[in-house]
Each structure stands twice: as structure tokens, then as C-alpha cells.
């Protein structure tokens, strides 16, 4: 193993192409990645260090050292070392198993193959062997292995198309373009081998949206930005090949810089247990001191009377003090069972059992992908019952990332809804028959579903407005078409919305077939028409609309426009007022249903007017100053007095059951924050769709670009909330006066997360019922999670499905991965995984709540039974001269926690449930005790230990009083050490078994066998250990023949045991009855409903309701400017192949992607 001193932080990176000797001097990271925590050498020390951070493990190690000293130990050392080693081994094996899955994932990625330029030729090698400065060749549909500077590609002007779902969750394509100076290299291996450019750039960082550098080549320098970089984790699409220069590799890549470090997670109960063990150890020391002082006094005042029986030669102050010192350590060993190591063994067994219950849950099995729920970290189950904040990604987590044309309004007529014979609205479901488009349109998309027959009928009846509506959708876009087989069209769109609109036009008879820089070809009900494309008036965030100007085959010039209704309505002709009012009603209805809307309008243009406008447009487009402003002004000149056609409504498809799941989580007082890389309009729209947001909610939008602006927006929102809450407070009102939502953009969040502002932001966010963070980076997601985690005493959960969610998944107390559209990175980094978001409510409200309930009951009972068991030694010390003599037989001490009481408490910890699963989902408020940590806390600990102390007093003093005053039936003495031990141990086993029976709320055959079988096992083993046969076999180990038969055969002893049990149990039964009758919990009341006549809960179903909203949903465009300029320029078009004239309707056409590739939005 090679050791080297830590490398100084980089200020800038210098790379020479094809010069490894130069690059190696900087010791840049290689391309191997490591997300696992351990390796073969570090596993043992690191894992032991982590395990001994548990105070209990350190405590038992200390006891083991004490037991190795014969002067003070009355117990053998192996009684501690064996269980301690067992616990350490079991935990280590589990940790190694969890980490092995991460190692295997790393290994799989590191061993992927890449083509690397070596010695003048491309050779396949492993990803892990890629070095900074290497030139790599990639092919279509391959993952990018490192952060690369794009040098050249197979596409015109060295364009390359990538999918960045692993980085930002967006599945639409994005474009990258090489510098002209490197694009000329093409695929020439010789030129690539002799390329000697030098790159000086920024050091490794986590900024996905920014890159700054300079290329020095041939005595010139060229600026480099993010548009020329291919980031690791992207997938090359629609590009035959490309070459790239490795800038950052392995852990230095931006993807890995955003991944965060694998953290060791501990539950709240683990942390509380550490505190309680310290308290118990302090209590143990206190008892040891009391008994040591008692021994010292006893030795100095009374012990001399027994000097003939003692080994010491003299009894004096010095020897009495030394005796007390030794007695102190002896009692530390004897009384250590207040926290037996079997507690930790049992905890691990219960957690493992809970994990298997999740893994085996068929109701969390996602059949579409054959994916069961999986527990990847088995130590966090009970924390699932304490979640208060859920941080969720949007794309692929809440949504399917699929847009569907749902409804539309054409010329004031609503389409897309179904009504029965009575005129009642019919809910559309999986059984509703869809329109059969293929019966009259062979080019229709088979996956497209629409249910209202009125619209296809209107299209076939040649409704002119409807035809113009879909003609607009087929012409006004920047989509590209690929047709590899006749009629098999594949659209590539810069946003899913555009793809949905063009697909809808295709199915309704207006099939977009192909485009060139000057034309758009559309198949209109079998009639192939080619429109001359005169101009594209591109979209941007200010305009919020897009227009195309075309000349139809008849020679008429038309302008087609689509955009946000708030913009389009202001550009309409006065004659459209009545239609505008009707369309507005439909838009409000669409918005109420959470649909994304666009308005469509058109305008007939005069030849002369267009010629004059075209001249002004040319002047604006070639202006040197304020070009964008001049273009916008020219666009507005022609985009006016338009005629309204109608509006579209697109559904951003949620995953099944998402609204119900979110509603149930909200009723359980679980707050959902959405952290997404998507744009604000889309995220807000999804918030309405999934019932996170609603119309009467006060929404605060923080979108400032400067620190002062962000601070002012946060302060203004806080002032408004304080004013409302202060001046409108209603006495005895339990609900908030108003409900608020917070929406903040990524650039504003960067300021809000600064130290000077983060607490203000957190206070505002926590006052809001819903929080949506848009356009955030993976690091910002983790920072938001960490802000809540560190400053709120609440348990957090992060859920996502892409590599951009890995950091927040690792940061949260619990990370959940969804196997979605974006790969398995989130799943591999998670603690729990499943196939759909809706399973989260079952994971939390059923499994999580049960796990927390069971673990709390288990811990309370375990401390109770061990305090009752151990403190009998303390009371006995006052009657045995503080000699560290044990009450119980050695075999009983050994078997008490292993055999006699282990199985009942394990049965309760594994199988108990207060109410059945259906009731947990119907009454989400049952979840609240875990959020407030009510079932096991310091107060509950004192209550259960106090009951244990009371039980120990009864267990010792009742039998002791009986033995002092009674005799055997034959008149002989009954009082002896073995009789006391048998009576106390018998009463103890019966009491703790009955106690666990009272604590159980759900009895299974296993519980019955374990509880009553444990009592039977005690009597069987006890009679066997003191039998004649055992004495004959091992006389030294079992010298007390009949020590159990003799006392238990006496009626007095049996009655004493019965009396002891009654005195111990009556207060418990009475207090439980009073509490359940006078102060029942919600769980008690639901349990009563559950048992009444075998009632089953009626599940709450969301009724289909029609909401009307003045809110407008997000417009269906990409977030950044469109790419009309690129299309009109023809730069991305290949020269068309020569072909014979054949009917495009019947015969195959050359693929558009063989001639043109759309340019997706920049990575923001």
C-alpha cells in the first residue's frame, strides 16, 4: 500500500492532452469511485470504533475487564465475553453485508468498458483506468464515464445530444457543441493522437450548471463553458459517436462531488439508550458505593465476630476499608444485569424481524417491475414510526414523467369529459373504453388514450375550427420526427409537453412527418401537405409564448401562436371577447383539476404587411445593440389581433395513489417538502395536482436574485404571517388561522441557506404547510435536509429516484429510493427501497408505526424485568453482611435472560400490534405518538424502572417474611438460601410472564407458546437441575439435590408465591383499567371499534370533485429559450439524401434525425 501526504487544495487545474507524464505530477484522482465505507484493511478498526460508540458496548467491555480480576469477580469471565463477542460479530456481519452491496455497485460501475486513445489507437479498458488527460470515444446510448470536454462528434457542427436524468431528473434531451477548432478533427485517430491542446480550468466543484476554463491550442486560446462539457452520469443520445478529453475523473467529477459521504446512521432510540445506559451505570455505581460502605461498616463493627470463618488474619479499619473496596467491584459485576448484553442481541433480532416483514409485504410489491420492497439498512426500522418531515423529489418520484393530452376547449366547446344518460359526470378509470383511433387513422400512436368520442367525430365531420386547432399543434413546435419504419414515428421534443401536444395532433389526424430549415410536412387525414416555414418567433421566459409563420400550399400566410393564457388573452382581437369568457371558464376548471394549460390562437397575414414586418425583423436580428429587446418588440408588432381557437389541458401524470398517500401523510402530521430541479411552474402545478397546495392557501414566492431581495421577501412573508396570527387569533382555536405555502427558487435558496439567513428561512418554512424548492442542485437538496435535521428535533426522511437525489438520501435520518426512470443510484444509496411513492404511506403508517410501538414496548418491558430481577440482590445484601452473595442460583442467573424470559419479549417485539393495518391507514393520527416520542422516553424509562424496583421489593420481602415465620409440615426448618432462591425465582418468572401478557395487545399462536411455554420451561429445567440424575452425572456442578422439589412441595411456599404474584400484578391491572377507562388514547378507542362485532374500517376514498380555480398551471415549454433560431439556421441539418418521389403516406421517408437534430434546453 502506497502512502502519500495529503494533496493541497486545487486553485486551478492544468491538463495537457496526450501527455500523461505531465498530468501525473499533479496526482489527479483516477476514475475509480468508492461509495462503500470499508475495505478489507479498514473494516475491523472502523467498525469496532463505530460499535464502541455505543456506550453499552464500552460498558460491557469494562465489565469484562473487571471479571478477569479473580479477587472481585464471583462470575466467570466467559459469561460476558461470549455474548459481547456475539453481538459484535452479528453487528459486524450485518454492516459488512450492507456495505458489500455498495462495494458491488461500485465495482460494477468501475468495470464498465470505455474506448481510450492509447499509442495511436482506441483500446477498450475499464472505467477505473481512465485518467485525466485521456481522450475517450463514446457511442450512442453509452454513459459518459467522466467529466469530458467535447472535442468532436458525428453530428453537424459537432453537436452532441445527452440525457441528464441521472443529474437533474430531466429526461428531455440537451445539446452540447464542441469548439470549431476541435470539431474539425472529426474521427481522425491520427489528428486526435497528435492533438496537443492545454486546458486550464476551475478546480473540482459541485456546480452542475457552471464550468469555466480556457483551451490553449495553436497559439490561440478559446473560452470553455458548460455547453462544451459532458458530465459523468449523462447518456449520449441520437449521436453516433463523439470524442472527449477527460477533465475531471472519479471522485472529482461533479456527479460524485454532489453525492456526499456515506454516513453511519443511528436512531433516536439508540441515542437515548446511550444516555440511559450512562444513567443506569451511575445508578449502579451509587448502589455499589452504598453496599461497599455497608460492607466496610459491617466488617469493622460486626465482622470480627466471624473472624474464625474468614480467610483474613485480622479485622481492622484498614482491612475493612479494603474489603469494602473489593465489595464495590464485586457488586458492580453482580448488579450489571440491570443492562444485560442480551438486550442488544434482542434489539438486533427484532430489527431483523421487522425488516423481513417489510421485505415480505405483498402490498408493497410493484408488479409492473417485479420489484418488492427492500430494507437495505436494518437498524432504522423503529425510526420509520417517528418521521415528521419528508423531503421528496418530483420527477420520477411523485410523477411518472409522462405528459398526456387530457382535455381541450375548442371554439367554446369542452372535450374530454364523459357523461352518463342522466347527464352526470362519469369518472374515467382503467375500465373506461378509449377511442379507437387506429380504426380511421393508421398513423395514430397506439399508446395515446382519449375517451370522449365527440372530438374524433367533430374531426371526421370536418369541423374547421377543430381542424385549425390541431393544425396549429402540428406546426407550432420545435419537435423532430424519426421514422425508421413506415408509419412508425418517434418524436424527439425539447419538453415532454410539446411531445404530448404533437402526439395528440397526430392521433386526431394531423400527423407531423418531417421538417427542413424551410418546410414542415404534415399528413392531414391522408393528404400530405408541405408548409413553407417563414419564421419562428421563439419562446422565452418573458414572452411565455411561441409562434410560427408559415405559407400553406394555397399560398396564404398564417401565424400560429400558443402560450400562457394570461399572455394570449391580451393579444386577441376584440371580436373574441365572448369566446374568451367561455374559454376562461374551461381554463379555470382545468386548473382546478391540476392540468397544465395553453391557449392557441392564429392570424391571417397580408403579403405586404408580412414583407414589411420581415424587413424590420431582419434589422432587429442583425442589430449590434439590444438585439433581444428589439426582437421582442418586433414579435409583439405581429402577434396582435389574433383569433382564439381554444385551449389545451395536459396532465403531468402522477404515479398511482400519490394524492391519497400525500393526504394520508398530511393527516398523520407529516410535512412534505418537494425539492426538485424542475422549473417553478411545473413544480407548483404538481403541488396542486397531488393536493399539497390548494386555492385558498396563501402562497409566498421567494425569487430574488440578490441577497437583499431574498431577505426582504422572507421578512415580508414572516410579517404577514405574524400579523394574521396575532390580530385574527380566535380563542380556543386549535387549527391555524390560515394555511401557507412557500415556493423558493434555487438561486434564492443559495442566499437563504447562508448562515446569516438560514434560521429566518427555516422559521418561515416551518410555519408553512407546504414547501416547494425549485431549480435546486443536488447539494442544495442535501443542505435543506441538513438544515431541518440539525435545527429541528424531528426525524427526517428523503425520497427520490435519481442520482441527483443521492446526497439528500444520505443526509436525511432515513433515505428511501424509488426504482424509477432514472436508474438505480438512489436505490443503492438508500436505507429502504420500493417501486412507487404510494408505498411510503404503508411503510410509515403501518410498518414504521408498528416497529416503533413494538420496540418501545420491548424496551420498557426489558428494563422492568431486569430491574425486578437484579435489585433483589441489592435488598438481600442488607441480610447477608454485604458479602456479594447472590440470591439466585448461578444457573438461574445464566438462564434468566437467555431462556426463561427471552422468547416472550421477542414475541412481543416482533408480532405485537395495537390495531390492525387497515385501521392504521384509516386513522393516520395513530402515528402521532412516535413523532412526539411518547412511548419510550426518559419519563417512561423512570416509570418502568420504578415498577421494576417495586416488584423487586415485593419479590424479596414477602418470601423473606414468610421464611422467617414458617416451618415445614414435618416441623423442620424451612428457611435456607436455596429455598429463598427457588421461591423468589419462581415468583419472578411468573410475574414477568404475566406482565408481558398484559402488555401484549395482539396474541398469536407463537405468543401463546412462548409465554406459557417459558413458564413451563422454567419448572422443567429447575426440577431437572436439582434432580438425582444431574447430581449423579455432575456432582460438583449440581450439589443441591431436591432443592426445588422440597420447598415447592410445601403448601405454604405455593401460597407465598401466589401472594407475591398477586401483590405485584394487582396495582398494574388496576392502573391499566383506570387509565383506559378515564384517559383512553386514540389507540384504545380504535381498538374498541375494531373488536365491536368484528367491524372492518371503511377506507377513505377521494371522491371525484370538480374544482374551479383562478390559478393557471404551468405553460408547456422548456424552462429556457427555445431553439427556433437553430432550426431556421439549418446548422444542425445534414444534407438530405437523394431519393425518388414516392407517396410519403404509403412509403418510408428518410428519418428526420438523419438530417436534423433538435436542440434541447441548456442545463440550468
Structure description:
- The protein is an alpha+beta fold.
- The protein is 43% helix and 17% strand.
- A 9-stranded mixed β-sheet has the order 14-35-34-33-15-29-32-31-30, with helices on both faces. A 9-stranded antiparallel β-sheet has the order 17-16-28-27-26-25-24-23-22, sandwiched between helices.
- The longest helix is centred in the C-terminal third of the chain and has 39 residues.
The amount of beta strand, in percent, is 15-25%
**Any low-confidence stretches, pLDDT <50, length ≥5?**
1-5, 727-735, 1103-1107, 1115-1120, 1135-1164
Beta-strand segment tally: 35
* Percent of residues in helices: 40-55%
Classify the secondary structure makeup into a structural class. Answer: alpha+beta
Q: How many angstroms does the end-to-end distance come to?
A: 42 Å
Largest sheet at a glance?
A: 9 strands, mixed
Pfam family, one: PhoLip_ATPase_N
Keywords: ATP-binding, Magnesium, Membrane, Metal-binding, Nucleotide-binding, Translocase, Transmembrane, Transmembrane helix, Transport
Active site: 393 (4-aspartylphosphate intermediate)
Biased composition (Basic and acidic residues): 1149-1164
Amino acid at each position: 500500500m502506497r502512502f502519500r501526504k495529503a494533496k493541497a487544495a486545487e486553485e486551478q487545474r492544468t491538463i495537457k492532452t496526450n501527455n500523461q507524464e505531465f498530468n501525473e505530477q499533479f496526482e489527479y484522482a483516477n476514475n475509480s469511485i468508492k461509495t462503500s465505507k470499508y475495505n478489507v484493511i479498514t473494516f475491523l478498526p472502523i467498525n469496532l470504533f463505530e460499535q464502541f460508540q455505543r456506550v453499552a458496548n464500552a460498558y460491557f467491555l469494562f465489565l469484562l475487564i473487571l471479571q478477569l480480576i479473580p479477587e472481585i469477580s464471583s462470575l466467570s469471565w466467559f459469561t460476558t465475553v461470549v455474548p459481547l463477542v456475539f453481538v459484535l460479530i452479528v453487528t459486524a456481519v450485518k454492516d459488512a453485508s450492507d456495505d458489500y452491496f455498495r462495494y458491488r455497485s461500485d465495482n460494477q460501475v468501475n468495470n464498465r468498458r470505455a474506448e481510450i486513445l492509447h499509442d495511436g489507437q482506441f483500446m477498450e479498458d475499464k472505467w477505473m483506468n481512465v485518467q485525466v488527460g485521456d481522450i475517450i470515444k463514446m457511442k450512442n446510448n453509452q454513459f459518459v464515464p467522466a467529466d469530458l470536454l467535447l472535442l468532436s462528434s458525428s453530428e453537424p457542427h459537432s453537436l452532441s445530444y445527452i440525457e441528464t436524468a441521472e443529474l437533474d431528473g430531466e429526461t428531455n434531451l440537451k445539446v452540447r457543441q464542441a469548439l470549431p477548432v476541435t470539431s474539425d478533427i472529426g474521427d481522425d485517430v491520427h489528428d486526435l493522437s497528435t492533438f496537443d491542446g492545454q486546458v486550464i480550468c476551475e478546480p473540482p466543484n459541485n456546480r452542475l450548471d457552471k464550468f469555466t476554463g480556457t483551451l490553449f491550442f495553436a497559439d490561440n486560446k478559446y473560452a470553455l463553458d458548460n455547453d462544451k462539457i459532458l458530465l459523468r452520469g449523462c447518456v449520449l443520445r441520437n449521436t453516433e459517436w463523439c470524442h472527449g478529453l477527460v477533465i475531471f475523473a472519479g471522485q472529482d467529477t461533479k456527479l460524485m462531488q454532489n453525492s456526499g459521504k456515506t454516513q453511519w446512521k443511528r436512531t433516536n432510540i439508540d441515542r437515548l439508550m446511550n444516555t440511559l445506559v450512562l444513567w443506569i451505570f451511575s445508578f449502579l455505581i451509587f448502589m455499589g458505593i452504598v453496599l461497599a460502605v455497608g460492607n466496610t461498616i459491617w466488617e469493622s463493627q460486626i465482622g470480627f465476630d466471624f473472624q474464625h470463618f474468614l480467610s483474613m488474619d485480622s479485622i481492622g479499619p484498614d482491612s475493612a476499608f479494603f474489603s469494602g473496596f473489593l465489595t464495590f467491584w464485586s457488586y458492580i459485576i453482580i448488579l450489571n444485569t440491570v443492562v444485560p448484553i442480551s438486550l442488544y442481541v434482542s434489539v438486533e433480532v427484532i430489527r431483523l424481524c421487522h425488516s423481513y416483514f417489510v421485505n415480505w409485504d405483498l402490498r408493497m410489491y410493484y408488479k409492473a417491475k417485479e420489484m418488492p420492497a427492500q430494507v437495505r439498512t436494518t437498524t432504522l426500522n423503529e425510526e420509520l414510526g417517528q418521521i415528521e418531515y419528508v423531503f421528496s423529489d418530483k420527477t420520477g418520484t411523485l410523477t411518472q414523467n409522462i405528459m398526456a393530452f387530457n382535455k381541450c376547449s375548442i371554439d367554446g366547446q369542452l372535450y374530454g369529459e364523459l357523461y352518463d344518460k342522466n347527464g352526470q359526470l362519469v369518472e374515467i378509470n382503467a375500465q373506461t373504453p378509449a377511442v379507437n383511433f387506429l380504426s380511421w387513422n393508421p398513423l395514430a400512436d397506439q399508446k395515446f388514450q382519449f375517451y370522449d368520442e365527440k372530438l374524433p367525430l367533430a374531426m371526421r365531420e370536418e369541423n374547421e375550427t377543430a381542424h385549425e386547432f390541431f393544425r396549429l399543434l402540428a406546426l407550432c413546435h420545435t419537435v423532430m420526427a424519426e421514422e425508421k419504419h413506415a408509419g412508425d414515428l418517434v418524436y424527439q421534443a425539447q419538453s415532454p409537453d410539446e411531445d404530448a401536444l404533437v402526439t395528440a395532433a397526430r392521433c386526431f389526424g394531423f400527423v407531423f412527418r418531417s421538417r427542413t430549415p424551410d418546410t414542415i410536412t404534415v399528413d392531414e387525414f391522408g393528404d400530405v401537405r408541405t408548409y413553407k416555414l417563414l419564421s419562428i418567433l421563439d419562446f422565452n421566459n418573458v414572452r411565455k409564448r411561441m409562434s410560427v409563420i408559415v405559407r400553406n400550399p394555397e399560398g396564404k400566410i398564417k401565424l400560429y401562436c400558443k402560450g400562457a393564457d394570461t399572455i394570449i388573452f391580451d393579444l386577441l382581437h376584440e371580436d373574441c371577447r365572448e369566446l374568451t369568457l367561455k374559454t376562461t371558464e374551461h381554463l379555470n376548471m382545468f386548473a382546478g383539476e391540476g392540468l397544465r394549460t395553453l391557449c392557441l390562437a392564429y392570424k391571417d397575414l397580408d403579403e405586404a404587411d408580412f414583407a414589411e414586418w420581415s424587413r424590420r425583423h431582419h434589422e432587429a436580428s442583425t442589430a449590434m445593440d439590444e438585439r433581444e429587446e428589439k426582437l421582442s418588440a418586433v414579435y409583439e408588432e405581429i402577434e396582435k389581433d389574433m383569433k382564439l381557437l381554444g385551449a389545451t389541458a395536459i396532465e403531468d401524470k402522477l404515479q398511482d395513489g400519490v394524492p391519497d398517500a400525500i393526504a394520508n401523510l398530511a393527516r398523520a402530521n407529516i410535512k412534505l417538502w418537494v425539492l426538485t430541479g424542475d422549473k417553478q411552474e411545473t413544480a407548483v402545478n404538481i403541488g396542486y395536482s397531488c393536493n399539497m397546495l390548494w386555492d385558498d392557501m396563501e402562497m409566498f414566492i421567494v425569487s430574488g436574485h440578490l441577497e437583499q431581495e431574498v431577505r426582504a421577501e422572507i421578512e415580508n412573508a414572516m410579517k404577514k404571517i405574524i400579523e394574521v396570527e396575532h390580530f385574527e387569533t380566535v380563542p380556543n382555536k386549535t387549527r391555524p388561522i390560515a394555511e401557507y405555502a412557500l415556493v423558493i427558487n434555487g438561486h434564492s435558496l443559495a442566499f437563504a441557506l447562508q448562515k446569516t439567513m438560514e434560521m429566518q428561512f427555516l422559521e418561515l418554512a416551518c410555519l408553512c404547510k407546504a414547501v416547494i424548492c425549485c431549480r435546486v442542485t443536488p447539494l442544495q437538496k442535501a443542505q435543506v435536509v441538513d438544515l431541518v435535521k440539525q435545527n429541528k428535533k424531528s426525524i427526517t426522511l428523503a425520497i427520490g429516484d435519481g442520482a441527483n437525489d443521492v446526497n439528500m438520501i444520505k443526509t436525511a435520518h432515513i433515505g428511501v429510493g424509488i426504482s424509477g426512470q432514472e436508474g438505480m443510484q438512489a436505490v443503492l444509496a438508500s436505507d429502504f427501497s420500493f417501486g412507487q411513492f404510494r408505498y411510503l404511506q404503508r411503510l410509515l403508517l403501518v410498518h414504521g408505526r408498528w416497529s416503533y410501538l413494538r420496540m418501545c414496548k420491548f424496551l420498557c418491558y426489558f428494563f422492568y424485568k431486569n430491574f425486578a430481577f437484579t435489585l433483589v440482590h441489592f435488598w438481600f445484601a442488607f441480610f447477608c453482611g454485604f458479602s456479594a452473595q447472590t440470591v439466585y442460583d448461578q444457573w438461574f442467573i445464566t438462564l434468566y435472560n437467555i431462556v426463561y424470559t427471552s422468547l416472550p419479549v421477542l414475541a412481543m417485539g416482533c408480532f405485537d400490534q395495537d390495531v390492525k393495518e387497515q385501521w392504521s391507514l384509516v386513522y393516520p393520527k395513530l402515528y402521532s405518538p412516535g413523532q412526539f416520542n411518547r412511548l419510550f422516553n426518559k419519563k417512561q424509562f423512570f416509570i418502568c424502572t420504578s415498577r421494576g424496583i417495586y416488584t423487586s421489593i415485593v419479590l424479596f420481602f414477602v418470601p423473606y417474611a414468610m421464611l422467617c415465620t414458617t416451618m415445614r409440615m414435618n416441623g423442620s426448618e424451612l428457611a435456607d438460601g436455596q429455598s429463598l432462591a427457588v421461591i423468589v425465582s419462581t415468583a419472578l418468572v411468573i410475574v414477568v410472564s404475566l406482565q408481558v401478557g398484559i402488555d401484549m395487545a395482539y396474541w398469536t399462536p407463537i405468543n401463546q407458546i412462548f409465554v406459557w411455554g417459558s413458564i413451563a420451561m422454567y419448572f422443567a429445567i429447575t426440577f431437572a437441575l436439582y434432580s438425582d440424575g444431574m447430581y449423579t452425572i455432575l456432582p460438583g456442578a449440581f450439589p443441591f439435590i431436591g432443592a426445588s422439589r422440597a420447598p415447592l412441595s410445601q403448601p405454604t411456599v405455593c401460597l407465598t408465591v401466589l401472594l407475591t404474584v398477586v401483590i405485584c400484578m394487582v396495582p398494574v391491572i388496576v392502573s391499566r383499567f383506570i387509565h383506559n377507562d378515564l384517559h383512553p388514547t386514540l389507540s384504545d378507542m380504535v381498538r374498541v371499534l375494531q373488536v365491536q362485532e368484528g367491524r372492518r374500517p371503511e377506507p377513505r376514498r377521494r371522491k371525484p370533485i370538480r374544482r374551479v380555480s383562478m390559478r393557471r398551471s404551468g405553460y408547456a415549454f422548456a424552462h429556457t429559450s427555445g431553439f427556433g433560431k437553430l432550426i431556421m439556421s439549418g446548422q444542425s441539418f445534414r444534407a438530405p439524401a437523394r431519393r425518388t418521389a414516392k407517396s410519403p403516406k404509403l412509403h418510408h421517408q428518410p428519418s428526420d434525425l438523419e438530417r436534423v437534430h433538435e436542440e434541447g434546453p441548456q442545463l440550468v
